[in-house]
Amino acid sequence: MTILYQTLANNENVDNIEKNGPFKCESKTAWLGTGYYFWEQFIENAQWWGKQIHGGNYIICSSSYDRFSDDCLDLIDNDDDLKTVREFIEELKRKGKYTASTSLSRVIELFKNEFNIKAARINGIGSKRGSFEDHKVYINKEKTNIFIDLMPPIQVCIYDKSILLKEFKVIYPIEYASDTLV
Q1: At what angle are helices 104-114 and 79-94 packed, to 10 degrees?
Q2: Helix, strand or coil for residue 170?
Q3: How far apart are CA 120 and CA 117, in angstroms?
Q4: Mean pLDDT per segment of 10 residues, for the chain of length 182 residues?
Q5: Who's near 18: CB < 8 A, 6+ residues apart?
Q6: Residue 77: closest CA among 32, 111, 122
């Protein structure tokens, strides 16, 4: 079971959020298409998003899923999934449905039409604006662009809420949390 965090604007509507959440993102710029977007494992990423997008006035909700499920397209560390998507893109190229400007969102939407996936998981390398030096470990001091990230910005887009394993609950700010500690 892997913890997920969804960051939402704080409109002081906790009961509505817990009753009706998670909330779907339908933005045309959503990286993985239409779905329920979460940060995986690190609440600090959800807090960063709340500060960036909601000016610090945000709520964080938690749920969980099985990231090792066959229903989850894992574009981080599942070699078979990565190979399948590479092959899918090659097929799209042969059919004239893929160019250098085709977005990942478009590829995923086409992929979902052919394969039964209920979630997708990515590490948006370079997606967090700002300095996060406290969780970078440089591999070579002279080459500051070579490092490992000990708090990667892993995002999960859930397409089918049935794969969520835990009730969707508000956990931050703490005064809204009913029974969860952060």
Answers
A1: 100
A2: strand
A3: 8
A4: 96 94 93 96 95 94 95 96 97 95 94 93 78 71 76 94 94 79 45
A5: 61, 168, 169, 170
A6: 122
Kindly report the length of the chain: 182
Structure tokens at 8: 């939402």
Q: List the beta strands (DSSP E) in the chain.
A: 2-9, 36-40, 58-65, 72-74, 119-123, 136-138, 147-149, 154-158, 169-172
Token pair of 34 as six digits: 């239409």
- Write out the H or E segment, with its range, that includes residue 89: helix 79-94
How deeply is 108 buried, as exposed, middle or buried, from its count of CB atoms within 10 A (0-12, 13-18, 19+)? Answer: buried
| Nearest CA-CA partner of 22 in 82, 64, 75, 70 | 64
Q: Report which residue type is found at 13.
A: N
Alpha carbons 62 and 110: distance in angstroms, whole number: 29
Rg (CA), the chain: 18
Please identify which residue in the block is written with the tokens 């931050």.
172
CA 29 to chain centre: 14
Q: Using CA atoms, how far apart are residues 108 and 104, in angstroms rounded to an integer?
A: 6
Tokens 């990230």 appear where? 149
